[in-house]
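User: What would this chain look like folded?
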Amino acid sequence: MAICMKPSTFTRWCLVLLLAAPLVAFAEDRGSLLGCWRSQHVQVTLKDNTHRDRNGDCVLEYDMTHARSRCQYGSKRTESIQSYEIVKKGRLRLVSLDPDTLQPKGPPAEVDYRIDDDWLMLERKFTAEEQALSGARADVRLRSLSVRVRAGQDGAVACNPRGEVSIRTGQSPASSLVLTTPSGWEPLLVDPTKDPRLGPAVNTSLFVGAFVPKGTAASGAMPRLLVLVVDDVRQGPRPIRQAEFAAVKASFRQDLGTPQITCDRPDRICGLIRLPEGGNVYTELFNVKGRVAMVTSSAAGTPSEVAPLLRASVTTFVDRLGQDNPK
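Assistant: Here's the prediction, encoded as structure tokens.
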């Protein structure tokens, strides 16, 4: 099995994502899988029926004979290559190859695949033998979602990982969404997995970044105004478009209650919450690139004092997400 990323779950993930390559040579629309795909969401289900949501800086590139995965983990970039065949419609078999000799370097693995518009969904169920080797908390199923990267789109010149980014640090699973820092703001470079302030807020979401007004990040104190941007994974590894987002909005509305809803549009919904300890949180869910971006701004003070500031801060980042992630 080719090692695409350092953690073992990502290693399996990179192998599984590439199992879709047989489709290129044999499907009725043989060109449907050719080209580049960027990973958006990976979900691993364990034997105890819990699951882990992950994502990394990985792309998949398909040609007529082979599939290649390229991943960036910190400063290290890895690449693997696989051969393939179609077992039956919707089922693929892949064999990892030694990059130097192109000889098989492990047993074949099978995966189910589905292409929906610009998204590729894959699912692998691990065998009883594979589960036995992993112990009590073995992986039993892996599902993934990738989005097509077209030439000249997404800043892509070639099918490569984006590489190290300047808006976040640490080992949190990272979102595929692009975000450039708006004028007047700067990243708060704190690892959510080690920070008691950001950790609970990020939770299981895919981290995009945390931001504070420019000139305040170095103080070390809790910022008066903080904007947090995450990629919400609660909908699972599937593309979220307008119809699916309607259900997301309904759930958000139920959680907050109608009086707290401050905006409701086809691609977004907003709400203001007054915390028991006196803080205020303004949240906007934004449907972009098949994902649900959650942009949250928080500050102390009365709602009448801070609500306009919070709303303006969130709007700045939502607008930038829309610009940086065109359809």
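The CA atoms of residues 34 and 316 lie 36 Å apart. If you want, I can go into more detail on any region.
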